[in-house]
Amino acid sequence: MAEAIAFDTHRFVKRLTESGFTEKQAETLAEEHVALLNANLATKADIEGLRHESKADIAKVEASIEAFRQETKAGIEALRQETKAEIARVEAGIDALRHETTAAIEAVKADLVKWLFGGVIAQGGLIVALVKLL
Q1: How far, in Å, CA of 19 to CA of 26, rounded?
Q2: Per-residue pLDDT tens for 49-62?
Q3: Is 20 left (phi over 0), alpha (psi -120 to 50) or beta?
Q4: For the CA atoms of 72, 76, 82, 84, what is the dihedral angle to 10 degrees?
Q5: For FRET with 81, which of 10, 19, 64, 105 sits at 20 to 30 Å CA-CA?
Q6: Average pLDDT for residues 77-101, to the nearest whole number?
Q7: DSSP string for 19-69
Q8: CA torsion 90→96→102→105, rounded to 10°?
Q9: pLDDT one-digit tens code per residue, 36-53
Q10: Residue 26 CB neighbours (<10 A)
Q11: Could you give the CA distance from residue 55 to residue 80 in angstroms, rounded to a whole number?
């Protein structure tokens, strides 16, 4: 693994020994500092790896979004077709009902004309009978 930052262990050991540490203590401390830095700092390679992983994750999310968009579009189109079919069915029912109503009105008109004509003839006959009687 590459070092996250450049760390001059020789200079570090030299300064510690000048400050009163034994060479063994200074070397151990330097090794621990290097291990700590390498364990907790990201390298360019680490960041580049994360960037590639993020790009792959983003591509997966975009593909999922596109698939969802296509499914939604197909669902909306299916619903639109169902709605058109339902509207056509209702319109056909309304047309049938309109024709039935028109036929019923025509039948009532015909009955009314028969009764009116019959009533007019009966009244005419009654008037003629009354005129002959008087």
Answers
A1: 10
A2: 999 999 999 999 99
A3: left
A4: -170
A5: 64
A6: 95
A7: TT--HHHHHHHHHHHHHHHHHHS--HHHHHHHHHHHHHHHHHHHHHHHHHH
A8: -100
A9: 887 788 778 888 999 999
A10: 20
A11: 37
> Is pLDDT of 4 > 70?
no
* Residue 34 structure tokens: 């290097």
Cβ atoms 21, 14 nearer than 8 A: no
Helix, strand, coil percentages (3-state) for the chain, rounded to 5, are 90, 0, 10
Tokens of 84: 């058109």
Q: How far is CA 34 from CA 12, 18, 38, 40, 124, in A?
A: 11, 20, 6, 10, 129
Question: Which tokens belong to 121?
Answer: 């003839």
Let me know how many helices (H) and strands (E) the chain has, helices first. Answer: 3, 0
